[in-house]
Amino acid sequence: MAQAIFAGGCFWCTEAVFRSIAGVSAVESGYIGGTVPQPSYKQVCTGETGHAEAIRIAFDPEVVSYADLLDIHMGTHDPTQLNRQGNDVGTQYRTALFPLDDAQRSEAAAGIARWNAAHPGAQAVTTIEGPAEWFPAEDYHQEYWQGEGQRNPYCLAVIPPKLAKLQKGFAEKLKD
Questions:
Q1: CATH homologous superfamily of domain 2-173?
Q2: What is the pTM of this model?
Q3: What angle do CA 165, 170, 171 make, to 5 degrees?
Q4: Could you say which of 16, 40, 48, 164 is the most buried, measured as most Cβ atoms within 10 Å of its Cβ?
Q5: Is 13 designated active site?
Q6: Per residue in 51-110, pLDDT tens?
């Protein structure tokens, strides 16, 4: 098993996307890239801790590669928005990659370059950060879409369009 850490707006919304990918065994919501140890959701929401809402993905590289996960990440959120995704505004919603080793760092740069090449006239503002310490989010944030998210108007407005992008652009990567 390998791991990847991506930030791309609300972690509820990105978690929902990656749970659908073949080869992904777990997705955990959390915080990374800030200065406060053991930050709470309330602290991160202020934008003052420096953390991003992010997801940590456990995956089987024999089934889905880190490069594939990068392409899915870049293709299911808006990597051109600086410190925001839609109505979520602040550095905690930045688009960022947190490679866990040198190979992932090289792949991250290549993934951003691939996205930029495929979108002439657009420029990704996705940053490559880290190393940084990972902090799991509170329990009620985990698997949010599968539970409370199905009744949350915000999630109902944001997640289905992301899942539609996933289905349209990456159908071959979905679980059966």
A1: Peptide methionine sulphoxide reductase MsrA (3.30.1060.10)
A2: 0.95
A3: 100
A4: 16
A5: no
A6: 999 999 999 999 999 999 999 999 999 999 999 998 899 999 999 999 999 999 999 999
